[in-house]
Design a protein that fits this description.
The chain is mainly α. It has helices at 3-23, 37-41, 45-70, 80-101, 107-142, 147-160.
Length: 161
């Protein structure tokens, strides 16, 4: 994942959480997440984890640059292996909770199904994204624009998509 894409997903998450906060005050989000652009802009769970990992790696690099420049080292460090262990423990806890409720789950089949669902989601997202891009291009050809205006708008769309 490119840094630009990670930043966009992180901004979408922040916007979503801000809207959710204001919804408690009767403003902002109406909690129809399936219809919300910010929900889809955040990506799926794997992409969200990747974004958080990229953010942590960036923070670690910045911290190392500060140490190199100032000679000061923070007494607190985030250990990446511990973060991975926490994520694995959460996965195990979810599996355990499902079993405690009395639902019998074949762990391997569940992982296959979840992986399949993620792949389907990613494929659907890519297809929807490409369709939106094509629809915008088609709409541009239907509008009366100068060649220069069309080129500028096309360049903007290329950067967006």
């Amino acid at each position: 994942m490119e840094l630009k894409e990670a930043r966009e997903k992180l901004n979408a998450r922040l916007t979503c959480e801000t809207l959710e906060f204001y919804s408690a005050l009767g403003q902002g989000c109406d909690k129809t997440c399936d219809e919300c652009a910010f929900n889809y802009a955040q990506g799926n769970m794997k992409e969200r984890r990747d974004v958080l990992n990229m953010a942590l790696q960036s923070m670690n690099k910045i911290e190392q640059l500060e140490i190199d420049m100032t000679g000061y080292e923070s007494p607190i460090n985030i250990v990446q292996s511990v973060q991975k262990d926490i994520a694995e423990n959460v996965d195990k806890q979810i599996y355990t909770a499902i079993q405690q409720v009395g639902v019998i789950v074949n762990k391997d089949e569940l992982i296959k199904a979840l992986s399949y669902d993620r792949n389907q989601y990613e494929e659907g997202y890519k297809n929807g994204y490409m369709k939106a891009k094509e629809d915008l291009k088609t709409a541009l050809t239907d509008v009366s624009l100068t060649d220069m205006q069309r080129n500028v708008i096309s360049a903007i769309l290329e950067n967006l998509f």
